[in-house]
């Protein structure tokens, strides 16, 4: 199993994802139920002494998994918006996608405007 990092880093990552989600609505992320739940859960499972706290490690693992899900969904939506097919494209648009340019006017013999 890969190292999870610190619980504080995971919490900051989750809060960052909440900010991304609430940026579209314009509401502060601190007014959401998700923020209140996260803060309550992380405060309740805080280790206050040098003992091994299984519930705290379980919460941290679930939080890291949820953070991975939120990041993956956000990145998937960004990729989907960028590369989603927009129907039939013209030859010029298709050439531009692969970095080519069509000649502005074909030259040579036999060309009649």
UniProtKB/TrEMBL annotation:
Record's family?
Belongs to the FMC1 family.
Query: Coding gene?
Result: Fmc1
Protein name listed in UniProt: Protein FMC1 homolog
User: Which stretches does the entry tag as region Disordered?
Assistant: 94-113
Q: Which domain of life is it from?
A: Eukaryota
Example of a GO cellular component annotation carried by this entry: mitochondrion
Classification lineage: Eukaryota, Metazoa, Chordata, Craniata, Vertebrata
Function in brief: Plays a role in the assembly/stability of the mitochondrial membrane ATP synthase (F(1)F(0) ATP synthase or Complex V).
